[in-house]
Write a structure and sequence with these properties.
The chain has a domain at 1-33 and 93-140: Glutaredoxin (3-Layer(aba) Sandwich), CATH 3.40.30. Helices cover 29% and strands 15% of the residues. It contains five helices and six strands; from the N terminus they run E-H-E-H-H-H-H-E-E-E-E. The strands form two sheets. The chain has a four-stranded mixed sheet. Strand 5 and strand 6 (130-132) form a beta hairpin. The longest helix is centred in the N-terminal third of the chain and has 12 residues, at 12-23.
């Protein structure tokens, strides 16, 4: 079984998601998308698999989103994809692909919905937020 995560190691949400995948007993294929951005075809495929629009995948914080004016509705889906390919930091993360589906894992615990083994036991995020308590119950 293959799980892939499009990961940014500098992002806490991405690190938490990766930790949950590993705690589920899987070792994913980790793609640091800032170093190895997806091709246009792969990005289009991921967007379609998630059932979202390119605009819904755009990351605003810490990106050139405002400088480029990406909040303007004039941009087409193809143009938004062009911007994401030119500036991979605009791609929101982490994107996780499993046999059960593809998801933008924001918040990180969204990954539990597509993990083959979502019963990962207790889990606390790096910032101290409890996601799964000692009894195995999802807190959020």
């Amino acid at each position: 079984m293959t799980i892939t995560i499009y990961h940014n190691p500098d992002c806490g949400t991405s690190r938490n998601t990766l930790a949950m995948i590993r705690q589920s007993g899987e070792e994913p294929d980790v793609i640091e998308y800032l170093k190895t951005p997806p091709s246009r075809a792969k990005l289009v495929e991921l967007i379609a698999a998630m059932g979202i629009t390119p605009r819904q995948l755009l990351r605003e914080k810490g990106t050139p989103y405002e400088k480029i004016g990406l909040g303007d509705p004039k941009w087409t889906n193809d143009e938004l994809i062009d911007f994401m390919l030119a500036h991979p930091i605009l791609i929101n993360r982490p994107i996780v692909v499993t046999p059960k589906g593809t998801r933008l894992s924001r918040p990180s615990e969204a990954v539990l919905d597509i993990l083959p083994n979502p019963d990962i036991g207790p889990f606390t995020k790096h910032d101290g937020e409890v996601v799964i308590d000692a009894d195995g119950r999802r807190v959020r």
